[in-house]
């Protein structure tokens, strides 16, 4: 147990001040020193300590008919602090879940985060009986890595693998210190998983909940390092998909079978064995009544052929418009050949590739008929800045093809205002927020007025 309350992790993002009060580490963890006690990359579990009684939850909520989460500024800030720890741990490690201990003397609670929520224990009084805390850490010390929340399909690469990966993936070297990992990718076509080396994700999730999408340029080493020296660089994507939505991997298989152009080319992938959220199961068991329904999530990992570049890296207006046009054609073919709607056309999902562009991230896609009949038929989807006016205004209807087509227009306008010459040069700082970020929040968040 290490006092990490005074030092931020030196490998965290610049300006990061996240410092859990206590970090639990393996006894042989050489990265932990007096000068660097906070190490999110290797810590097993955090603990937060308050010298006074700051209650965040109401154990009698269901009985009293009130919210389980205490609604004060102080309680909201403290819950946000705990969630931030979960974000940092899960960004620096590969996890299925995370245990956290919250002590607010004389009481304490155990919290278990996964990608669909957090399970919170009832409080117990340490001054009366500290057995639960002792029992927790005793059991935690005997757990396997998988039981502690580690994704065991990811391992630290060997020195030889690390050297090769850093040479081949140099173009995508991470901004912060990150090890090279070896990841298993499961596929129903092969009995054994394929192996890929990755060196830092292109973006880390900023929430402890949800899809938690991460993408990596990747090098396959299934057949040994010698073959990997000349193997093509691919793109590996992993996320926690909702059971309520069509699996992206099924969509990519269908697009490939229909020979749809300007979309990612699926090579292999599937759900990881046994990696499923648990919060949803317990929520159903205890009869949770607050908030939105909690969907079960499955951890999926797959590999596609293309490694794209963000659209904002275009070198000319021609290259930008070609990328958008190609993505538009990919969308058109997907709709005409497969009756698929993308439902999240945005700047982040249009990538530059050699001689054009492609429409990426089909995890929100649905069949046209499914969108009208499915469990999420009237749920608003998309990226706020690029959503259609009707959807931003909160219209209760299924997503339509016109919504996707309108999003292409907003992508063009956004990147034109931001990067291309125009006669409003001095005003983008006012224009862009007014058009793309405007919202009102009276019960339900709505927008579209600027557009």
UniProtKB/TrEMBL annotation:
Chain positions covered by the region annotation Disordered: 1-23
Pfam families documented for this protein: Pkinase_fungal
InterPro entries: Kinase-like_dom_sf, Pkinase_fungal, Prot_kinase_dom
Domain Protein kinase: 140-451
Residues annotated as transmembrane: none
GO molecular function, one term: ATP binding
SUPFAM superfamilies: Protein kinase-like (PK-like)
Name of the featured protein: Protein kinase domain-containing protein
Lineage, broadest ranks: Eukaryota, Fungi, Dikarya, Basidiomycota, Agaricomycotina
């Amino acid at each position: 147990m290490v006092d990490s309350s005074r030092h931020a992790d030196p490998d965290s993002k610049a300006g990061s001040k996240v410092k859990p009060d206590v970090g639990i580490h393996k006894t042989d963890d050489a990265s932990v020193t007096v000068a660097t006690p906070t190490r999110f990359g290797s810590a097993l579990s955090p603990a937060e300590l308050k010298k006074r009684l700051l209650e965040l939850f109401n154990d009698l909520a269901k009985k009293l008919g009130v919210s389980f989460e205490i609604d004060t500024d102080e309680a909201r800030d403290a819950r946000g602090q705990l969630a931030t720890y979960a974000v940092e741990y899960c960004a620096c490690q590969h996890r299925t879940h995370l245990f956290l201990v919250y002590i607010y003397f004389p009481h304490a609670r155990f919290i278990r985060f996964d990608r669909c929520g957090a399970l919170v224990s009832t409080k117990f009084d340490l001054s009366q009986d500290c057995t639960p805390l002792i029992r927790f850490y005793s059991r935690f010390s005997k757990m396997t890595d998988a039981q502690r929340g580690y994704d065991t399909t990811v391992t630290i690469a060997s020195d030889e693998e690390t050297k090769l990966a850093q040479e081949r993936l140099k173009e995508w070297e991470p901004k912060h210190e990150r090890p090279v990992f070896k990841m298993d990718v499961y596929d129903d076509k092969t009995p054994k998983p394929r192996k890929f080396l990755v060196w830092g994700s292109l973006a880390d999730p900023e929430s402890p909940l949800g899809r938690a999408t991460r993408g990596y340029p990747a090098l396959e080493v299934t057949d040994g390092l010698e073959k990997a020296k000349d193997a093509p660089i691919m793109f590996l994507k992993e996320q926690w998909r909702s059971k309520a939505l069509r699996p992206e991997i099924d969509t990519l298989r269908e697009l490939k079978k229909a020979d749809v152009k300007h979309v990612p080319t699926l090579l292999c992938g599937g759900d990881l064995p046994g990696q499923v959220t648990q919060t949803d199961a317990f929520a159903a068991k205890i009869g949770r009544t607050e908030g939105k329904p909690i969907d079960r999530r499955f951890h999926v990992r797959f590999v596609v052929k293309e490694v794209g570049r963000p659209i904002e890296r275009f070198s000319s207006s021609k290259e930008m418009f070609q990328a958008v046009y190609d993505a538009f054609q990919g969308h058109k073919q997907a709709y005409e050949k497969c009756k698929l709607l993308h439902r999240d056309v945005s700047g982040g999902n249009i990538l530059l590739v050699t001689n054009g562009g492609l429409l990426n991230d089909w995890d929100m896609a649905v069949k046209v008929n499914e969108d009208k009949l499915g469990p999420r038929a009237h749920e608003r989807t998309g990226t706020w800045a690029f959503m259609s006016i009707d959807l931003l205004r909160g219209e209760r209807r299924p997503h339509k093809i016109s919504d996707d087509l309108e999003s292409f227009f907003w992508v063009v306008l956004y990147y034109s205002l931001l990067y291309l010459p125009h006669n409003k040069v001095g005003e983008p700082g006012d224009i862009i927020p007014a058009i793309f970020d405007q919202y009102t929040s009276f019960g339900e968040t709505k927008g579209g007025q600027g557009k």
